[in-house]
Specification:
The protein contains nine helices and seven strands; from the N terminus they run αβαβαβαβαβαβαααβ. With 261 residues, it is of the alpha/beta class. It has a single domain, classed as Rossmann fold, CATH 3.40.50. The structure holds nicotinamide-adenine-dinucleotide. The site of nicotinamide-adenine-dinucleotide (NAD) has 30 residues, from helix 2 and helix 7. GO terms for molecular function: 3-oxoacyl-[acyl-carrier-protein] reductase (NADPH) activity. Belongs to the short-chain dehydrogenases/reductases (SDR) family. It is an enzyme of class 1 (oxidoreductase). InterPro entries: NAD(P)-bd_dom_sf, Sc_DH/Rdtase_CS, SDR_fam.
Length: 261
Amino acid sequence: MQDTLETGARAGGKLKDKVAIVTGAGGGFGEGIARIFAEEGAKVAVLDIRAEAAEKVAAAIGHGAISVVADVGDKASVDAAVADVAARLGAPDIVVNNAGWTHRNQPMLEIDEETFERVYRINVKSIYLMAMATVPLMKAKGGGTIINIGSVAGIRPRPGLTWYNGSKGAVNTLSQSMAVELAPDRIRVNCICPVLGETGLLESFMGQPDTPENRARFLTTIPLGRLSRPDDIGYAALYLASPEASLLTGVLLPVDGGRTI
Ligand SMILES: NC(=O)c1ccc[n+]([C@@H]2O[C@H](COP(=O)([O-])OP(=O)(O)OC[C@H]3O[C@@H](n4cnc5c(N)ncnc54)[C@H](O)[C@@H]3O)[C@@H](O)[C@H]2O)c1
């Protein structure tokens, strides 16, 4: 009990003893999701391609969180990482496919082929590879939940981000398709669609320096008048992963201050 109080964990947290893998958790939204899951009692694997960042986040959030280094676009790397998590924490109950990347905001014809392929590799192929590695483990365990981080970009696309927008449209749609197909296995699949957020990707999305004047132009397009933050996405993910959401599957949940209205 003492330890619980010191670390900030809530006794009987909503995710008590659940094993969760959060990809891209070395910073940004993923870090927020991993921290909030750990505070609610989950055993969290902080997966990222940046080893130092993953280690730092795992150490900071505590509660037995571990760091795992993997490239979510590489099959061998994903398979090894999932096997490592299963050996150290157990088979996953919760998988959050959060790792993502964008080309800089610019005219669609200026994006080269290599950049296009990188966007789809990190944003879309990653979900295929993570599903291949984790769904059989969830089925064997009797169920689980998958949360994909899509985007409002796949619902109400902004110009200059065409190829990224398309990749997030794919994430949104495949989340719904996975939900239907995996429902008989008691695996729920939902998708969070954040609005522009205060993370490392912000300047790439804006295509200009993050100055108060440039930010103001984007804020006028968000009715609630602010950008999203890691906690906003973390609490939405907590709800979708929790037992309270046991009848929710195939949901595209905009966390967007009204941007998609
Ligand atoms: N920030 C926004 O405005 C915004 C809006 C909507 C959706 N999203 C989505 O949210 C998710 C998280 O993005 P963020 O804004 O927190 O960005 P971020 O750059 O702060 O964090 C992304 C993390 O993913 C990791 N990563 C990148 N490539 C990887 C790979 N191949 N394998 C493993 N890890 C990898 C990075 O190291 C980083 O820690 C992404 O899917 C992004 O598309 C972001």
